[in-house]
Amino acid sequence: MERLDGGSAVPAALRGGIVALGNFDGFHEGHQAVVGRAIARARAEGRPALVATFDPHPVRFFKPDLPPFRLTTLDQRERLFAAAGADAMLVFRFDAELASVTAEEFVTDRLLTRIGAAGVATGEDFTFGKGRGGNVSVLKALGARHGLSVDAVAPVMGDGEPVSSSVIRAALQAGDCDTATALLTRPFAIEGVVEHGDKRGRTLGYPTANLSLGKYLRPRFGIYAVRGRLPDGRVLDGAASLGIRPTFEPAKELLEPHFFDFDGDLYGQTIEVELISFLRAEQKFDGLDALKTQMNSDCSEARKRLA
């Protein structure tokens, strides 16, 4: 699996491919349908299969003051695309230059000249080009003019509405891990480098691996049953605090998983933590004894839900 710069010429071996075109943040069921269509066509025609994404998210470029909303990092997307069968991930850097490219220029310069695409697959609601001047109808017309085949994939429906990243974000912000997991087809996961903390968890008998929330969407703050995935492939069950730790000062947004029956040094390692089930909201305790009693209860409940 190669990661390519969408602004540069694609290597010869990957030209003539079918490109799945979208942002694919979350890579949920609807995104998987688009990428699956591109890969199926590529395999049937003996062509490379490429997945294009944008970084930063176009919304972040136009509205830089929005709260964090990402569901995946580029590294996570790359692994997901590879698992789906793609040969390469194309990353379009969304900046002022790309924002100024017209719909026709995007097709002729980016897709045809630089990437050498033979065809694209995208969702029916895809928009592109300066001022969002391009949609699927425009894309098909330009494709017909320039010899680029276009497949438009209908939305995947869930509970009477299209599966979307917005629905998944709303579920996570409500603490509804079950809905988010169903639509993503996997648990929502936060990946990061384990940081040194204040060691309070170790003092309480519950050492934690502290992760910054970075650019990820903030799910509902509280306590979760989680699974951690370590660089060596081990999968660990645990309970985690996600939020600002209201019992302690100063307030700081962190994901702090405690992994059951694990005694090791994770500092500096990149781990991924899956949110499996929301246990309770954040709470401020009068003292450490009360907090420790609640932590005992939280871990017991987390074990039951993960069993």
Automatic annotation (TrEMBL):
Record keywords, A-Z: ATP-binding, FAD, Flavoprotein, FMN, Kinase, Multifunctional enzyme, Nucleotide-binding, Nucleotidyltransferase, Transferase
Pfam families (UniProt xref): FAD_syn, Flavokinase
Catalysed reaction equations from the record: FMN + ATP + H(+) = FAD + diphosphate; riboflavin + ATP = FMN + ADP + H(+)
EC numbers on record: 2.7.1.26, 2.7.7.2
SUPFAM superfamilies in the cross-refs: Nucleotidylyl transferase, Riboflavin kinase-like
Biochemical pathway: Cofactor biosynthesis; FMN biosynthesis; FMN from riboflavin (ATP route): step 1/1; Cofactor biosynthesis; FAD biosynthesis; FAD from FMN: step 1/1
Domain of life of the native organism: Bacteria
GO biological process: FAD biosynthetic process; FMN biosynthetic process; riboflavin biosynthetic process
CDD domains: FAD_synthetase_N (cd02064)
Domain called Riboflavin kinase: residue spans: 183-307
One example GO MF annotation: FMN adenylyltransferase activity
Function in brief: Catalyzes the phosphorylation of riboflavin to FMN followed by the adenylation of FMN to FAD.
Listed NCBIfam families: PRK05627.1-3 (NF004160), ribF (TIGR00083)
Name of the protein this chain belongs to: Riboflavin biosynthesis protein
Species in which this protein is naturally found: uncultured Sphingosinicella sp
